[in-house]
Amino acid sequence: MFGKLASSTSAEHLALRSAGDNGSAEGESHTASLLYLPDYLIAEQQRQLWIELMAIDTWEQESLMMHGKPVPVPRLICYVGDDGTEYAYSGVRHRPKPWSPALGELRHRLCDELGHGFNSVLLNQYRDGRDHMGWHSDDESELGEQPIIASVSLGAERRMRFRPGDRTRSILGSSAKSLHITLEAGSLLVMGSTVQSVWQHCLVRTAQACGPRVNMTFRRVSAV
Ligand SMILES: O=C(O)CCC(=O)C(=O)O
């Protein structure tokens, strides 16, 4: 599932496994796999990408309606992709912006090394420790049944948490465990094909002094 990267010497394979999981009564497994490479991008690649992404003039501050009032989403976003990869999330339909050079190169490297046809990337910019992302699964219909998502991080280290999704919790109850990973600058986290259907993840807010961070989640979007 993780292509050429699976045997990389620095790769850490993490199983998101619920305690005592031997498959549920319905015969489903609640185990899903993550691949983490802390040093996927060298310092110069990180620097080039950072400069390129910070120069984008189409970062958007979106708002969500809560109790009838618009509330700013706690991060900036920019959606980039091939023609025809419109993508709806958080209730908004996004048209892709064109690929910039270093981002396009990174996409091709990931496609080659993971053997997967990524055609878009969602960029999230966390300006400081208050910016974050709440619990969710990337399970929009455009991503298909079992999406593989490649997530590359730049800038400040931040913590990502995983917990079983609602359906998994309802089957497994308290045996369902959660997990966290610290995402370092230049790291790659690949979420394997069952991660989104079984687990949820979030990017934790922090009260500690924390500089800006950009995360790129490469996806394969199909027309729905
Ligand atoms: O910023 C991150 O590392 C998480 C991004 C994320 O969860 C998403 O784009 O769905």
Helix and strand sequence: EEHEEEEEHEEEEHEEHEE
How does the overall form come out from the CA principal axes? globular
Which class best fits the helix and strand makeup? alpha+beta
**Radius of gyration, Cα only, in angstroms?**
17 Å
Write structural notes for this entry:
The protein has 224 residues and is an alpha+beta fold. The chain has one domain: Jelly Rolls, CATH 2.60.120.590. It is 17% helix and 34% strand. It contains four helices and 15 strands. It has helices at residues 43-54, 101-114, 166-172, 195-198; strands at residues 12-16, 32-37, 63-66, 69-72, 76-81, 87-89, 92-94, 120-126, 133-136, 149-155, 158-164, 179-183, 188-191, 199-203, 213-219. The strands form four sheets. A seven-stranded antiparallel sheet has the order 1-2-13-10-15-8-5. The two termini are 24 Å apart. Bound molecules: 2-oxoglutaric acid (AKG). Residues 122, 124, 133, 138, 151, 160, 183, 201, 203, 215, 217 line the site of 2-oxoglutaric acid.
Write the layout of secondary structure elements.
Elements: E1 12-16, E2 32-37, H1 43-54, E3 63-66, E4 69-72, E5 76-81, E6 87-89, E7 92-94, H2 101-114, E8 120-126, E9 133-136, E10 149-155, E11 158-164, H3 166-172, E12 179-183, E13 188-191, H4 195-198, E14 199-203, E15 213-219
Antiparallel strand pairs: 1-2, 2-13, 3-4, 5-8, 6-7, 8-15, 9-14, 10-13, 10-15, 11-12, 11-14
